[in-house]
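User: I'm curious whether this sequence folds into something compact or stays loose and floppy. Could you predict its structure so I can see for myself?
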Amino acid sequence: MSKAHKQRLLIGFTLGPIFLAAAWFGGGWFLAIVALIAVFSQYELLKMVHYPPRVLMVLTLVVTPLCLLVMYFSRFDIVFLILLFAAAFTNFSLLFYKSSEFIKMSFVGLGSVIYPGLSLGTMILLRNIEISAYQQIDIGRNIVIIMIVAVYATDIFAFYIGKLIGKHPLFPSVSPKKTVEGAVGGFIFSCIAMIVFWLIDFIPVFHVFDYMVLALCAGIFGQMGDLVESKIKREIGVKDSSNILLTHGGFLDRFDSLAVVVPLYWIYVYIKFFV
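Assistant: Here's the prediction. I'll summarize afterward.
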């Protein structure tokens, strides 16, 4: 086993339990960790695209945690007001930038608030879900836990199965090392993880169909989210979003799948319980 791979395992087995523990206990700790992940991921994206307007970068990096904070207290009207203010400020700021590139980048900053900022921040909405018929069980906690497990079961097994038996490139123009065998293996293990949760009745209001929908979101769309971030990096010409997590790359590298899966989970759960 190489030194880089050992380092990868060490970081994974250290940060993974911290993330799961924060999701389990919820509250302010989970809010803080999700905000940290969202802001760092957003910052890495802006740095990768060489985001030039410094004032607007600060604005977008402040807007995201503010939105997550008011989302935590279910004040969606204030989230809307914050986003409107950011949009208005960005529009006015265009008067002071002459370069057409700066004008394009101004709207990239606003986009980064949505992806990956609020996309990852949707975990807070999932975590805070309450269903009156099942108050004895923390449904929101359990949904977030199975989501994290499904996404990283997909990621881990896609990586190892791809290394062991992968022969057919999945999307060579975007990520040459990813294989069809790895992608299929990741999806299968996502399904296996969900079947285990169904057998132990981890979420009493869910049927096997619900678990399979969540497996589909993690096992297929999660891998697509990973490919999207790979596409961004390839177009820019960088290997990792940053090196803050050493061999894991940056926060965006580690949470790109979640940035796609979390909103899909929220949409499905919202339609199931509240529509």
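Summary: The first strand starts at residue 169 and ends at 171. The chain is about 75% helix and 5% strand.
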